[in-house]
DNA sequence: AATGAATGAGCGTTCATTCAT
DNA sequence: AATGAATGAACGCTCATTCAT
């Protein structure tokens, strides 16, 4: 069965997140996965394929679910934060951010994610704050700010040990727009 | 004179920014700097010393200058954004962000920058919005958000081509707190 | 049936001829033959067995046929050239020549071919030039030369695009001996 | 000094001749040369460069020396055989022949050599056998035959253990043309 | 007979680092 | 201070071969 393949991906995910793609050798991956070195290349002909497969199989941007929004804007934004449309472990997020700088596939995925996040935040605000629709520019800034903070949460936490509470940020931005 | 040393650092800065620290060999640095391979190790006994030296000599977090603040909060925040207290070339910024994830020195420098940014934003808001001092938590969120956006702006631009206008964000956050 | 076995040998023959035995992997053979990798080793327990089998089954040195010789020596030599007693495809000939340098089996086969060629040329000359039998040494040189040219013709053509016309060579050597 | 480089080339020459280029690992070369593995790549960035360098530096087609020819054609051909215009050890000749089949550089060198040999043999015969100049075709065959035998001497010897005496061949061909 | 996952030795190559000069 | 040959560990990857099914 695909036990070995999964173990290789698990090990790679952990090691890439911890030390980065370049600094992680295929031998270390095999060791951590407890498989022989050659097997890594049986499943992933090139080392890069391990990274691409991780991004492909372990980050997914969810379809927007169109269930009714909470009527209040802060509540709606809070729900967006809670259901960040990126199904990916913290490890995968770090990998995505780190490798986006040098690997197109990671960059493309991250770009798409950012775009989607902004789009949803904007839409949420438009629907729940009909009065603010007049000031499109302000609304856009708020959406982009919200997306940025959500996106870089993981990185920031790694830097400072602190997180910005998305709920509090949602409240703050809502207040700014009303 | 120290022409060679400077050329080595210049070359390393460009290469680290472009391909990352791990993927840049000392031989390539020497080649790009047009110095013999051995000379790199004359000035920097370990490859890591090149990175440390770059961070040490080419990124600097400015001392808080205590010149009088503009009286209005939005104006004061705007000035903070315009004078991001990080003296570093675009290349050095990319290096700092990229390597912060895996190299302590870069992380420490970036952590310090973030901390300083938050501190200044908080201080600015406290001084210009005396009425808001009562709600320390909200003020903190606003400061942290402002710092985060400033910090990751460069990254985001590299990803998406869009920037969040810091002035507009300053306005938005000010409004939220009043 | 033995469809797979034949396809493996066909693929190996083409690949060995094109890239050489050493530079052809069993995996490539399996791929070209459109059979699973494991099957190659089912039929040929070692990679070398593929080469040995090819030489064994696809090169054959013909038995000397003792049909009456043309009476004139040049005509007789010409017929020998026209019926080079090696039944083998162009691919197999290239394999034989190339691998003879390093693999005993190929060398043995090629040695046998050369010996047979010399033997026939000598015999032809002896029978058709009874007067020349006195000078065995010259006759031997002529026979060996004829054999060499026939043997390396293919190689030379591959190199230079030129062929030595065996008929003309037969004429020339005959004249030298009369 | 270049002691190591020479030892690497010496070792490679012997091993390539014995086992062929593909079947000779760089590790074996280093071992035989008694240098560390890494040094091979210091001098020859790619394994192929070892072969190319050998061909470049250790096979040389000499300029035709225009000293007066012996007046008799057989003597002149004999001298050509004795001074085969290829300065190359027996090892290098085997390498040249073997790798010519798959490596363009070796093929080009061998082609040039063959062409030059034929040219000289033709010229020698033309000068010493003015009467034969009328029959250019026969003269060409004789020259090509002589060149072929000289070229493949080494290979033939490896196959059969026998050599064709070039002097005797020179005599034979001369006789054929007179 | 047929399959493809598994194995580990070995390959060509890279590389940070050392060191004699 | 400056140089480039030397070094050997480690890298990504290939490969013939095995084996359970």
UniProtKB/TrEMBL annotation, chains A, B, C, D:
Gene3D superfamilies: Tetracycline Repressor, domain 2 (1.10.357.10)
Glycoprotein found in the keyword field: no
Record keyword ATP-binding present: no
Lineage top rank: taxon: Bacteria
Keywords: DNA-binding, Transcription, Transcription regulation
SUPFAM superfamilies reported in the protein's UniProt record: Homeodomain-like
Pfam families named in the record: TetR_N
Residue stretches making up the HTH tetR-type domain: 2-62
DNA-binding region as annotated in the record: 25-44
Name of the protein in question: HTH tetR-type domain-containing protein
Origin species: Actinocorallia libanotica
